[in-house]
Amino acid sequence: MNSRKVRLISPYPITHRFKVQDEFVGKSLLEMMVTRFPFRAETEWEKRIHNGRVGLNEESVTPDVLLKKSDSVFHHNPKVIEPSVPDEIEILQETNDWIAVFKPAPLPMHPGGRYFKNTLTAMLEDMGYADLKIVHRLDAVTSGIVLFAKTKAFAQRAMTEFAEGRVQKTYFAEVSGVPEEDSVIINTPIKRKTGFVFESNTDLTNAKPAETTFTVVERKEESAIIKCEPKTGRTHQIRLHLEHWGYPIIDDPIYGINGDKTSKKAQKTAISLVNAGLVIERLRVGVGLDRKSH
């Protein structure tokens, strides 16, 4: 059994502050905390509000207080114990304008939820790469290539390329089942269902358009390796479109076979999905991974 390098952080105190999102204006503080952070039970959030660890505008409030757009929410944790993460970041390519790294999984991109110091950006800062600009994202449970900008000018140009669909992205996934088709295009729209769980169906309202091309690379007895080429970049897009096709990622805890879509169970393990290729021709960016090396 191969051992992995692991990063551990000593417990520390922290206070998170954030603004109220439009969808929670007029709703109670308790409802927002339960919806946004479902990995803690409603009774636990209610307790934290009552004891003053969660409040509004630096003041204690009741769980049923209704939120306004101007409110600032705080959440104080006197002893944060972050989950360990793999310490396996690799620098793949670097120029004066950008850097491409290999992100292992499970590892979140940036601070949020249960993670603050055990994140890709924080770990890169510890490696001497401070003030990098995020131009795209990978799910915490997805591994592979991540591109960062070193300058604001390059960040703006790169984000424009992503937004206008001119970035060639190539992922590989292992799925449950063996497709008969050699290739297929899935273009069902995507929207948030609850918490960190999304859904993709043709009959959704207020959903965002999405499109992914899938090509079978290798067929096994009960699974297959699929090349995934997303034209758009929606949250969980590849995972959702593979599920919609009928061949979900083999170890996906949400959209896989018998997946948990309650949004109450935190994602803690890597899934068989790797971002293995990223090309931005206009910016002369071209980064690739050997499919079998990561």
Report on this model:
By secondary structure, the protein is an alpha+beta fold. It has 2 domains: 12-80, Roll (Structural Genomics Hypothetical 15.5 Kd Protein In mrcA-pckA Intergenic Region, Chain A); 85-288, Pseudouridine synthase (2-Layer Sandwich), CATH 3.30.2350.10. The chain has 5 helices and 17 strands. The strands form 4 sheets. Strands 6, 7, 8, 9, 10, 11, 14, 15, 16 and 17 form a 10-stranded mixed β-sheet that branches. The chain has a 3-stranded antiparallel β-sheet with strand order 2-4-3. The model has no long low-confidence stretch (mean pLDDT 94).
Please give the structural blueprint:
Layout: E1 6-7, E2 12-19, H1 29-36, H2 42-50, E3 54-56, E4 72-80, E5 85-86, E6 90-94, E7 98-103, H3 120-126, E8 133-134, E9 143-149, H4 152-163, E10 168-176, E11 183-186, E12 190-194, E13 197-200, E14 212-219, E15 223-230, H5 237-245, E16 273-280, E17 285-288
Parallel strand pairs: 9-16
Antiparallel strand pairs: 1-5, 2-4, 3-4, 6-7, 7-9, 8-9, 10-15, 10-16, 11-14, 12-13, 14-15, 16-17
Helix pairs in contact: 1-2
Quick overview:
With 294 residues, the protein is of the alpha+beta class. It is built from five helices and 17 strands.
